[in-house]
């Protein structure tokens, strides 16, 4: 075996085995909070829920029903963000829910952040729960999240939603979405005092209202497309402690079902993750080619054992995520296919940006 061939075979093996051995274990699912449906009723009057809602008539009822089951005294504000459906009327029919009609989107603001900014003016409780309109909390989840926050003395805690898996494309790509998010933002580092990583899942965030205001609230990140991680960064920079974990009790109601829907979800911010850098995009492309392509190329060479080792380590790193979401381990065999699709979505995001569109979401286009 020539030197170049040995180096080529060693690179992906070192990458994947190294990933398994990293002390911060980005592939694990140890950071988690689950709902306790048998927990006693809890007084939640110290929390106000802020829900930005734009054309969410199909799901807002389930979201609000889930909140009603969490405990007593919970205050809920729904900001109806210029909906053209029945979102506001459905929300107003629930007890303890205040519906605020959203004002037109000012220039320089992202839609969700503008809705949250309007609702934020009406929050007068010590804590604020930022909840997406398509997120349903299972009974006992909010008390468990509150208990973790208080026990661990955190000012900002968030949970990654369990994304619906109803089709082949969902099962192929959505657990991998969480897997890649954890690789990009290792939870254990984000949850530490280190400021190298600051991450959050915007669908469900419980934050001290005072910390939110001192961090600049939503005006300080009004144009951010990755608003959750940007907010976590602001909170950390203000000297507060954050925590991020997984949960099967935070359920996304949004149906994807097909490749195009998942593409639109990823492409709206993939190039933003790279800071709109063409150089970083090329670096990521090369890294994906080494990590996912070289192991297969090496299987037909004298270095096939190293290629096989890389593939085994790659798929082993994905097993905890599949187990957590109760999926068949055979899906690990398709991780390279998912990687190719995600790389393609990232390039699609970049091409969209080069054409003058920074992002498209909820019938809104944000230009460059």
From TrEMBL:
Highest taxon in the source lineage: Bacteria
Keywords on record: Membrane, Transferase, Transmembrane, Transmembrane helix
Coiled-coil annotated spans: none
Keyword Transferase: yes
Record field: transmembrane: 274-294, 306-325, 331-354
Any GO MF annotation of the entry: transferase activity
Domain Glycosyltransferase 2-like: 48-212
Xref: PANTHER family: GLYCOSYLTRANSFERASE, SLR1566 PROTEIN
Name recorded for this polypeptide: Glycosyltransferase
Upper lineage: Bacteria, Pseudomonadati, Pseudomonadota, Gammaproteobacteria, Lysobacterales
